[in-house]
C-alpha cells in the first residue's frame, strides 16, 4: 500500500511527438501531474490533457524559474521532476512504487540513473553515465533560477540512488541535436556573464573544448559507446567552446 504521495512536474513546449511516452510512464504512480506549457503550437497540450487537468499556459522565463513555478504548484509529499523527452523504464517505475510504499524513507532526495538513448543506442559511458537528482521531498526544496542547467536544492539530508533507468531521448535527429547544442551554449554564455564569470580569451575556450572531449571520450570511456560515443564527445566539446566564445563576445560588448 502506498504510504507517500507523489507530484510529477513537467515543463513543455512543442513536444507532441515525445510527451505521451513520458506521461504514460508516470501516470500509474503519480497522485498529481502538473504541466507548465510555454506556448506550444502543436498538439502537446491536448495530449497532456489526456493525463491531467492541472495544466498552466505561461510565458518562458528560463528553465530554473519555470521549474520553480511548477514546483510551487505541487502539493504531495514527494516530487518527481521529469522532462518531456524522458520516461521511467519498468525497473525504475517498480523501484519508485516500492519506495513510496515504505513507512519511513530516510533519504530526502534520490538520483535517477540516466539511460541516454541517441541514434538508436542507449549510452553507458561518457557524460551519459550519470545520475540526475530528480526525486525529492517537496517541503523545503527549491530550484536554482538559472537560465539553463538548473538544479534542485533539496532539504538537507541523505541522497539515495533509485534502481532502473530514466530513459532520455535527447535528440529527435542530428539537426535537432545541433539546434539544441547551440541553444544551450548561448544560454550558458548568458548565465556565466550574469554571474560575472570570465572567459579568459579564445585560446582558453579552445583548450576547454579539447579537455572536454578528452575527459568524456577517454577518461569517462565514451569510446566504449562506439561511433555514437565519439559524436557525443565532439558535441559536448563544441558546446563548451561556443559557450566560452559567447561569453568572450559578451565581455567585449560591455
UniProtKB/TrEMBL annotation:
MF annotations from Gene Ontology: transferase activity
Highest rank taxon of the organism: Bacteria
Pfam families: Glycos_transf_2
InterPro entries: Glyco_trans_2-like, Nucleotide-diphossugar_trans
Natural source organism: Photobacterium aphoticum
Transmembrane residue ranges: 201-218, 230-250
Glycosyltransferase 2-like domain mapped to chain residues: 7-102
Keywords from the UniProt entry: Membrane, Transferase, Transmembrane, Transmembrane helix
Protein name: Glycosyl transferase
